Amino acid sequence: MTLTKDKLIIQIQNQINLTKPKSRQLIEQLLEIMKTTLANGEDVLISGFGKFSVRNKRARRGRNPYTKERMILRERKVLVFKTSGVLKEKINIT
Predict the structure, then answer these.
(1) Which of 14, 50, 76, 78 supports an S-S bond with 83, CB 3.0-4.6 Å?
(2) CATH number for region 43-94
């Protein structure tokens, strides 16, 4: 089962007793803060969960898997997530 944004909103609504629109607004604002922070090149560290950061990938050689044509893949930024020790332990307990 995947935890979607809608399921997260419903859980916030039920556990904190907020209305659904307020729960949606809370989640949307949280995600917007995270996106803006990452877009500005800053890391997002959530204690007990993990760290989101943006890394630069250099240009590199690659190939099209369908045509086998060689090409140069452009430089780009990627989002990286590193789990905290607490989350690693929780995942590995089950």
Answers:
(1) 50
(2) 4.10.520.10
Burial of 31-56, coded b for 16+ CB within 10 Å and e otherwise, reads eeeeeeebeeeeebeeeeebebebee
CB within 8 A of 20, min separation 6: which ones?
Answer: 9, 10, 13
pLDDT in tens, 20-42: 999 999 999 999 999 999 999 99
- The structure's pTM equals 0.80
Q: Are 73 and 62 in contact (CB under 8 A)?
A: yes
